[in-house]
Specification:
The structure is a homodimer.
Chain A: E1 4-5, H1 6-10, E2 20-25, E3 28-35, E4 49-55, E5 58-62, E6 65-69, E7 73-77, E8 83-86, E9 93-100
Antiparallel strand pairs in A: 2-3, 3-9, 4-7, 4-9, 5-6, 5-8
Domain Cupin type-2 (chains A, B): 37-96
Organism (chains A, B): Allomuricauda ruestringensis (strain DSM 13258 / CIP 107369 / LMG 19739 / B1)
Protein name (chains A, B): Cupin 2 conserved barrel domain protein
């Protein structure tokens, strides 16, 4: 019930592609992450996933196109849809995520980037 | 699956204290609203409610204190907790809300500010 400053929270961690939990709303969680380069193709079978770009430009790759998500924009990836977030030119992009508690960030895929624990900050 | 620009969406309506739906994530909805002055004391018996301040400064009144929520900050109001959002000095504050589908924005209270329909924009 205290205000949470997104920039301050983003400054509390440096590891990329590793979501950190800042809040819970019913059975959904609010995560922050830092992205640079390309993630990995995956889908979430049962969960939608919302990305909000707080800093930089996110390129959300779908199998048939790429959506450019600028600062101050959100994009919802529906359940079951393959996607692969990417940044360009070495830019580190800061995002906020809204998704169900327990959503695996690489979906069914087990990958070297897979994190099983999201620290609370 | 298209990016949604919050500022552009906020520009599409002018009515204050009237949430507009911009996205759905599983059984939760993302709403935008414009606030000016004081709302009304209420609680949501079964739903948490997240506020994100996109523009301006929100003063979230609780029965025992006021939390100041600045631009770029979020605050989660837990279910059952009485609250009353307010702005100061005639400022119009723009917020994003994240809450369960069907959450009544005045809770159990029926009030002249109560809106039963949230337009999709």
């Amino acid at each position: 019930m205290k205000p949470i400053n997104l920039k301050q929270k983003h400054a509390e961690f440096s590891k990329q592609w590793h979501p950190h939990q800042i809040a819970v709303v019913d059975d959904m969680q609010v995560l922050l992450a830092k992205l640079q380069g390309e993630f990995v193709w995956h889908a979430h079978e049962n969960e939608d996933e919302l990305f909000q770009v707080v800093k930089g430009t996110l390129y959300m790759q779908f199998r048939d196109r790429i959506e450019v998500v600028n600062e101050g924009e959100i994009i919802v990836v529906p359940k079951g849809v393959e996607h692969n977030p990417m940044t360009k030119n070495g830019e580190e992009v800061h995002v906020l995520l809204f998704e169900k508690m327990g959503t695996a960030h690489t979906g069914n895929l087990q990958h070297e980037k897979t994190q099983t624990h999201y620290p609370k900050i």
